[in-house]
Amino acid sequence: MNPLFDCHRVWVADIFADGLHGPSLTAQPAAIAAVDATPLTPALRCAREPDEVIGWRALCSCGGWHGRTWLRAENPVDHDPGHRRLHCPSGRLDTSATTLVLAEWDYHRVEMQALIPVRLAYEDSVSAQQRLVEAVRFVRSAGASWAAIGQVSGLGSAEDAELRFGPQACDMC
Ligand SMILES: [Zn+2]
Predict the structure, then answer these.
(1) How far is the CA of 114 from the centre of ligand 1 (A)?
(2) How much distance in Å is there from the Cα of 111 to the middle of ligand 1?
(3) How much distance in Å is there from the Cα of 42 to the middle of ligand 1?
């Protein structure tokens, strides 16, 4: 898998009535993340009872995506995966239910994989900007004029070159 995709790892979270989240794969539920999936500090993490699980959702480790909420149905007759309702007496999802909750993540995965060329091009442009700034610093230290730098960099004038690369400019502007 492309290393650029390493930040996208999906997991299924238990949702508790107070909105906190925890990993659904553990035998003992535990709240480890806030409503927005931000990890709780160790002092705020706490074990929960299976009865406290009110639903589930898939979360991506990138922090930029989460699936829709699947509610826990108390009665077997209310089990309705098509409407994201799962009857789960134990509060712990089995493999097939976990697969259902995870399925939405595939869209996010495909989208993020399709965007990898954009990420690569962005990183190339950042790297090129850094090389340009370093090259200008080098030639300035060797005595090149702002007028000459303006001419070869495409900025045109000495003033524009100094504004872009001079001591007042920020490196990434
Ligand atoms: Zn992601």
Answers:
(1) 12
(2) 9
(3) 24
| Euclidean distance between CA atoms 57 and 71, whole angstroms | 9
Give the predicted TM-score (pTM) of the model.
Answer: 0.70
Question: Does residue 58 contact residue 105 with C-beta atoms inside 8 Å?
Answer: yes
Q: Is the pLDDT reported for residue 170 higher than 80? A: no
> What is the residue type of 56?
W
Per-domain residue ranges of the chain? 3-114, 117-165
Distance 98 CA to ligand 1 centre (A): 18
CA distances from 150 to 30, 48, 79, 106, 154 (A): 60, 64, 69, 48, 6
- Position 140 pLDDT exceeds 70: yes
> Per DSSP, what are the bridge partners of residue 55?
15, 71
**Tens digits of per-residue pLDDT, 98-131?**
999 999 999 999 999 898 899 899 999 999 999 9
What whole-number distance in Å separates Cα of residue 78 and Cα of residue 89?
Answer: 12
